[in-house]
Amino acid sequence: MSNHAEDLSQFDISVQETDKLVAEIIRYVLFKTHHNSGCPIRREELTQLITKNYRQRNLPVLIINEAIAKLSTIFGYEMRELQRARTSSNNHQGRNSQQSAAEAKTYVIMSKLPAEVYKKYVEDVDTAHLTGFTFVVLSIVHISGGKICEENLWQHLRRIGLDEANESHPVLGNTKQALEALVQQRYLQKDKQSGPEGNTLIYELAERALDSQVTASLKDYISQIVNKDVGSVEDE
Predict the structure, then answer these.
(1) What angle in degrees, to the nearest 10, is found between the helix axes of 212-235 and 128-143?
(2) CB of 72 within 8 A of CB of 79?
(3) For residues 46 and 28, is the Cβ–Cβ distance under 8 A?
(4) Residues of 42-70 as b/e, b for ≥16 C-beta within 10 angstroms?
(5) H or E segment at 151?
(6) Widest CA span in the chain
C-alpha cells in the first residue's frame, strides 16, 4: 500500500515486524475457522495476538486491516466483521451498552470465488451433509418469516427424518448439537420469549443467514424444491 510506510512510522515498528504480525493473524484466522467449523472469531482474540508484545494503541487496527487485505488478494477470502444487535430486558445504558457492543464484534471469512469455482476446487465433500443441513434449516426459518419456535422447527425436521432426541444420526450425529452449531456459527440466533404458557424458544435468522449471497442461495434452493414438487405433481 502507498501509505504503508507512513502508517508504520507512527508506531515505531519495522516492515518486517508488521509482516510477521499480519502473517500470524492470517494463520490464526484460517486455522481457527477450520478447527471451529466456521464459528466467528472474536476481535479481542486477534487484538491479543498483537498486544501481547506491542503496546501501541492503534496498532491492532492497522495489522487487522492489513490481514483483511491480504486474505482478500492472496487467498480469495473476505474477512467480514459481524456485530450482533443486542437487546436487553434490563435498562443498561452508557458504558455498559458500549462494552456489550464491543464484545459482540467478531469476524468470519467468506469465499469470494464464484460458486461454481468454489464447488469444483475448494468445497469439501466430507462436509457436504452439514451444508445441506444448514440450507434445510435456514430455508425452513426463511419461509416461516425469518423466525420460528423450536417446536415447529423440529416438527418440520421430523418430516425428513431428523428427530431432536436422536444422538447418533448416521450423518449428523447428535441432531440437537448440529442445530446448536448453526447458532454458534451465527446462522441462527435463539432467544426465549415469555408468554401465557411459559417460555418459548425462538430461532431467528442471524447475521450470516441475512447476508445477501446466502439469502440469494436460499431463495434459489427453495425455488428448485418448489419447482421440483410442482413438476412431480404435474407428472402424476
Answers:
(1) 80
(2) yes
(3) yes
(4) ebeebbebbeeebeeeebbebbbebbbeb
(5) helix 150-158
(6) 75
Amino acid, single-letter form, for residue 75: F
Q: Which amino acid is at 102?
A: A
C-alpha count within 13 angstroms, C-beta hemisphere, residue 230: 6
Position 174: which residue type?
N
Name the pTM for this structure: 0.75
**Cell numbers given for 47:** 487484538
- The per-residue pLDDT of the chain, averaged, comes to 82
Q: Which tens digit of pLDDT belongs to each residue from 68-94? A: 999 999 999 999 988 665 543 344 444
- pLDDT level of residue 168 (50, 70, 90 thresholds): very high
Sign, Cα dihedral of 118, 130, 221, 107: negative
**DSSP for 217-231, written as a single string:** HHHHHHHHHHHHHHH
C-alpha cell at 161: 427424518
Four-CA torsion 24, 28, 34, 37, nearest 10 degrees:
-160
Place of cell 508506531: 11
- Residue from 56, 55, 53 nearest 21 by CA: 53
Reference 30, options 20, 21, 41, 19; nearest CA is 41
